[in-house]
Write a structure and sequence with these properties.
By secondary structure, this protein is mainly beta. Helix content is 10%, strand content 45%. The two termini are 41 Å apart.
Length: 431
């Protein structure tokens, strides 16, 4: 398993798929979650909303693993304003925080949500807000409220309004598959097909501003890297060299794209200027150098190489070309991704023949294992640095899963109808 892309193609091609549609299964949360009640929002208009705003907020907070929402069936009352809250009742239920709110129509039939976050112990309002969106964006409005509450209670920016990229495959006939590159909200809702091909699609990645993506497709019978503008729908083929064209990764400023090419011999790391299309070779070694990931300052790249005999993580300085080995624990470390704070790496780490997601702080060489499943691949870090997405298998099916960087929170996003692979978590898309 030297080249990850080969393994991924095998996985995609060996599972019969019908359709990709993600659900949420929380299987492990924080040991001491915050008890919170998200009361159904008041609504006086004579129409029925297709989405329950409070329920979406509740599920968002629950999925983070840091909160334990009170069941609606256990609520003694359902206030919609702070003035209607009897704190003694909520305290008797063991709740620390209560979220109340009201929905109404504004100009142009936009939906307005006015909400408050109340501290039961101090009997004070600690957050008051108002959000407005069209009826088509009710879920976005709810995710916005979730972000505000999450940040208020954790001091960490919420990432509920981010999005996912992932790959699915649909069996067509006995031997052929249809591959799709999909985009959805972070909870798997709002799925949109971005690319559709009878040939494999691999390695989707986001630009730093979230307006473009890059991915690998075998549409031309050999791997080629494509750039897709999400705002215009324009698609541009960036490379189609002889041999490998893979593992695209945007620079922090979005002006360059790191990639793996084998056009000059062995697979090496290259960087393309997206304005001029000029390509610079970064590594030049007889070994396999692959899976580049940018350092936050844009001055160096982390990559996987078997130049030491086994796949390990290395770092190359772009200015000097100097290379240093980063990982030493274990005989397999690959697909490194930099944590949001720039203080460590997450990676695929092999333990007794099983592939897990591990994290290594730069201050020490020890790899800490975050997952316990058998074949964990393709880690992607949330923009707030709190969670990781990865692909794995569950009940014989390929699923996406998430784990907190401390390993305490875990949940799965299985497809209702088949396997999904290759997750990529978007950057922050909104202020």
């Amino acid at each position: 398993m030297v080249l990850r892309s080969f393994l991924l193609m095998f996985l995609l091609c060996t599972a019969p798929l019908l359709r990709a549609e993600l659900s949420i299964e929380i299987n492990e949360g924080n040991d001491d979650p915050l008890p919170i009640a998200v009361v159904p929002f008041g609504w006086t208009a004579g129409v029925t909303l297709q989405e329950d705003v409070a329920s979406i907020v509740e599920r968002d907070l629950h999925r983070s693993g840091l909160f334990e929402p009170l069941s609606r069936a256990d609520m003694l009352s359902r206030p919609s304003r702070a003035s209607e809250v009897y704190y003694r009742d909520w305290k008797s239920l063991g709740v620390d925080y209560v979220v109340v709110g009201e929905l109404s129509f504004g100009a142009n039939n936009n939906l307005i949500a006015r909400y408050e976050l109340l501290d039961v112990n101090t009997q004070q309002s600690i957050l008051k807000g108002e959000e407005q969106q069209s009826l088509k964006k009710v879920r976005f409005l709810a995710h916005t409220i979730s972000d505000r509450i999450y940040e208020k209670l954790t001091n960490i920016r919420g990432a509920f309004r981010t999005q996912l990229l992932y790959v699915s495959a649909v069996r067509e006939g006995d031997t052929r598959f249809r591959y799709r590159l999909l985009k959805s909200d972070i909870d798997g809702v709002g799925e949109e097909v971005l690319a559709d091909s009878m040939e494999p699609i691999l390695a989707p990645t986001w630009s730093p501003d979230g307006k473009k993506i890059a991915y690998v497709s075998f549409k031309t019978t050999r791997p080629a890297i494509y750039l897709h503008n999400l705002e215009t729908g324009e698609r541009q083929q960036l490379t189609n060299f002889r041999g490998l064209n893979g593992a695209p990764a945007f620079s922090p400023d979005g002006r360059q794209l790191a990639m793996v090419l084998s056009k000059d011999g062995s697979p090496d790391i290259y960087v393309m200027d997206l304005t001029t299309s000029a390509i610079q070779r970064v590594t030049n070694h007889f070994a396999i150098d692959t899976e580049p990931a940018w350092a936050p300052d844009g001055k160096s790249l982390y990559f996987t190489s078997d130049r030491g005999g086994k796949p390990q993580i290395y770092k190359v300085e772009l200015a000097s070309g100097s290379v240093e080995r980063i990982t030493f624990e274990g005989d397999y470390n690959a697909r490194a991704r930099v944590l949001g704070d720039g203080l460590g790496l997450v990676m695929v780490h092999r333990v007794k023949g099983r592939f897990h997601i591990g994290v290594q702080a730069f201050k020490r060489n020890r790899v800490e294992i975050l997952t316990t499943t058998d074949l964990d691949e393709s880690p992607s870090v949330a923009p707030n640095g709190s969670m990781l997405l990865y692909s794995t298998t569950y009940n014989g099916q390929g699923v996406l899963a998430a784990v907190s960087v401390d390993g305490g929170v875990k949940y799965r996003l299985p497809s209702r109808f088949g396997d999904v692979r290759e997750p990529a978590w978007s950057p922050f898309l909104y202020e």
